[in-house]
Amino acid sequence: MELKDDCTIMQEISTTEEAIKTTYDRLSDLEKKLNNESLPENKQKLIQLELEEVRKLLKTHEDQLAHLRKHNRRTFVFVIALTFTIFTVYMLYILIGGSDF
Fold first, then answer.
1. DSSP string of 45-89, one letter each residue
2. pLDDT of residue 35
3. What pLDDT, in 10s, does the model give residues 5-33?
4. What is the pLDDT of residue 38?
5. Cα–Cα distance between 5 and 75 in angstroms, integer?
6. Among 12, 13, 55, 70, which has the minimal tally of Cβ within 10 Å of its Cβ?
7. For the CA atoms of the chain, what is the radius of gyration?
8. This prediction's pTM
């Protein structure tokens, strides 16, 4: 799964969440159409096929969102570790060198 260079992780997460919302709306509409008993058999089969495709698309979007969140979590952990390391080095500097500033 490739991340776009011109977008931040948060923008991609937001875009993917919007796509998931749109896909859920489409899924709901198709299910309502499928529950209509007055539809001809061939039309029901077409809607059923489209419903399966929308479910596959939804699964893809959800997998992409999980990947983006995992990537965002790793970035956050890296920043926390870097901040802790810098703070520790600074504290050691103060302890060893004294506070003559």
1. HHHHHHHHHHHHHHHHHHHHHHHHHHHHHHHHHHHHHHHHHHHHH
2. 87
3. 556 888 999 999 999 999 999 999 999 98
4. 84
5. 16
6. 70
7. 25
8. 0.72
CA distance 16 to 7: 12
Looking up tokens 């893809």 gives 60
Query: ∠ CA(20), CA(78), CA(95), 5° rounding?
Result: 150
* Distance between CA atoms of residues 58 and 52, nearest Å: 10
State the residue for tokens 């919007």.
Answer: 18
Stretches in the chain below the pLDDT threshold 70: 1-7, 99-101
User: 9 in helix, strand or coil?
Assistant: helix
**20 contacts 58 by C-beta, under 8 angstroms:** yes
Predicted local distance difference test score (pLDDT) of residue 46: 92
Other C-beta atoms within 10 Å of 68: how many?
21
